Amino acid sequence: MIERRLVTNATLTMLTTATGLPVGRGRAPTTTSRHYYVLYALDGAVSGPPLADENEDLAVTFQITSVSLPDPAKPGSAGSAEQVEWMADKARAAFLARNPANGTWAWPINVDGATVVSRALDTEPGERMIQAMPS
Fold first, then answer.
1. How far apart, in Å, are the Cα atoms of 75 and each of 28, 66, 72, 87, 127?
2. What pLDDT, on the 0 to 100 scale, is given for residue 65?
3. How far apart are CA 70 and CA 40, in angstroms?
4. What DSSP letter does each residue of the chain carry, written as one string?
5. What pLDDT, on the 0 to 100 scale, is given for residue 133?
6. Considering the entire predicted model, what is its pTM?
7. Which residue ranges of the chain lie beneath pLDDT 50?
8. Which of 55, 70, 79, 130 qualifies as a cystine partner to 134, CB 3.0-4.6 A?
9. CA 21, CA 33: separation in Å to the nearest integer?
10. What pLDDT, in 10s, does the model give residues 89-113?
11. Residue 99: what pLDDT?
């Protein structure tokens, strides 16, 4: 059985590494950064194995919220929509970018005991779907 918790932890690690920005799991991370992500694991589906396979598949949908806070040194300042869009672009690139030399994911999601076999933008803006199967 693939543990969803492990997929979420690996996804959080990948997003942090790929973007260089802090990521919180379901809440704001403990950080002094004015820019960060919040990762929510929304849904998961386990499908039974095909006849010739003994292993199940797991599909997890994530929501990634980009946060840009005001500058505390500048009273009346606000986070910027442009900054949030820049962060969303970085998150999309982290999930979807491929290595042009060999076609592998530019930023792998390493899950103990499983292999991530697909990633896709979901139908709702801001969500990503990751599918894993046992290694």
1. 22, 22, 6, 23, 33
2. 93
3. 23
4. ---HHHHHHHHHHHHHHHH-S-EEESS--S-S-SEEEEEEEEEEEEEPPPTT----EEEEEEEEEEEE---TTSTT----HHHHHHHHHHHHHHHH-B-TTT-SBSS---BTTEEEEEEEE-SSTTEEEEEEEE-
5. 60
6. 0.81
7. none
8. 55
9. 8
10. 999 999 999 999 999 999 999 998 8
11. 94
On whether the CB atoms of residues 2 and 44 are closer than 8 A, the answer is no
For tokens 């499983």, the residue is: 114
- The radius of gyration computed from the CA coordinates of the chain, to the nearest angstrom, equals 16
Span 121-134, pLDDT tens digits: 765 555 555 565 66
